[in-house]
Amino acid sequence: MENSPNNKITVIGAGIVGASLAYHLATKGAQVTLIEAQDIACGVTATSFAWINTTHPTPDPIAQLRGAAIQEYHRLEAQLPGLQIRWNGALTYGAAPVPSANRISRSQILDLEPNLKHPPEQASYAAEEGALDAVAATHALVKGAQAHGAKVLTQTRVLGFATQGDQVTGVETARGFIAADTVVLAAGTGTAKLAKMLGAALPINASPAIFIRYKTHPNLVQTLISSPEMEVRHGAGGTLLAAEDYLDDTPENQPMAIALRTAEAIQNELHGVVSIEPELACVGLRPMPADGIPIIGYLPQVGGVYVCAMHPGVMLAAVVGRLASEEIIDGKAPSGFGPCRPDRFVRGLAT
Q1: Mean pLDDT throughout 275-288?
Q2: How many angstroms separate the first and last alpha carbons of the chain?
């Protein structure tokens, strides 16, 4: 379905993806309204490990987008003073053969991470990679959008959509009607429900992962470490952040139980961990399309409805925000979005 450029745009969802879309659209002169059912960055963004990396272990349909992620975050850093990213690099070992391009020796590993008790003979080190505070980054993007005229409505639930013929005309919310030429669905795991209101069946699963924040000593690690024993990095205020796979909902695999086991693993792997206490251990629900590929683009059922649902959302937020805004405002279809189009799921389905 043809979608013409327009200026009155409502973005639904104020996680990091929705905030990036709102910012980029506003900087291009659109009249942006960002609406959120709860508070800014209160969903999966708040429980993201937020590793900005370009590596992928298998053939990658979104390699073009992934490859641009780091450059796009450097661009945003220059535009938004409040956006602070720790470009400390990532040290990976133990899970797969180490690629020769980034391979470093045991002595080099210890130069980077002197607290490692059991450094491997070799590891992969990506010096260009980093991580951010996803909540703070989202607020920086929202503030940037507001500086360009965007309106932000939190605690605003979507009740439905208004259409005329096959074109969206606005959003019905608990706080009233918002007229729109284009509506962008960027509500994480809630995107599928919103799309269903418009007659589109998008298979987006809620993929659980464990996020942990520890109170411990500063400077235990210098980079981001990803190994079979632990995936850890320092966060704001010297806290130590960890990510773990969700196993099941049995008592022994509840988030706090996993946090305590991970704390023991960290103590076994690092010198200098005299005390380590979990401050937060929770499950984050990532929006995972059924085929694992992001869903980005216009719905075919109704004109003017654009979808952005993806994992990893934090890593792709900067590049997708810019490219999607160019498609919506300028009509430029990015080549990197080719595998991501929604019509791979909804083509031929009845509305």
Answers
A1: 96
A2: 14
Phi-psi region of 210 (alpha: psi -120 to 50; beta: other; left: phi over 0): beta
Let me know: does 257 contact 251? Beta carbons within 8 Å: yes
CATH number of the domain to which 169 belongs: 3.50.50.60
**Contacts (Cβ under 8 Å, ≥6 apart) of 162:** 168, 169, 170, 171, 172, 177
Task: Say if CB 288 and CB 310 are below 8 A apart.
Answer: no
Helix (H, G, I), strand (E, B) or coil at 9: strand
Q: What per-residue confidence (pLDDT) applies to 97?
A: 73
- β-bridge mates for residue 122, sequence order: 105
Residues of 134-148 as b/e, b for ≥16 C-beta within 10 angstroms?
bbebbbbbbbbbbeb
Spatial distance between the Cα atoms of 7 and 180, rounded to a whole number of angstroms: 9
Torsional sign, CA 285, 290, 296, 297 = negative
How does strand 176-179 pair with strand 167-173?
Answer: antiparallel
Under DSSP, is residue 265 helix (H, G, I), strand (E, B) or coil? helix
Considering its fold, how many domains does the chain have in total? 2
- Is 304 found in the same domain as 322? yes
Dump pLDDT digits (tens) for 111-140. Answer: 999 999 999 999 999 999 999 999 999 999
d(CA 349, CA 347): 6
Same-domain check for residues 196 and 241: no
Let me know if residue 74 belongs to a domain. no
Residue 23: inside a domain, yes or no?
Answer: yes
pTM tops 0.85, yes or no = yes
Please tell me whether residues 48 and 192 are part of one structural domain.
yes
Structure tokens at 138: 């989202």
**Domain of residue 194, residue span:** 8-66+134-203+290-346
CATH of the domain at 218: 3.30.9.10
Residue 195: pLDDT band (50, 70, 90) is very high
Residue 9 — φ and ψ, nearest 5°? -125, 130
Q: Is the dihedral of CA 67, 72, 315, 27 positive or negative?
A: negative
Distance of alpha carbon 44 from alpha carbon 48, whole angstroms:
6
d(CA 123, CA 147): 44
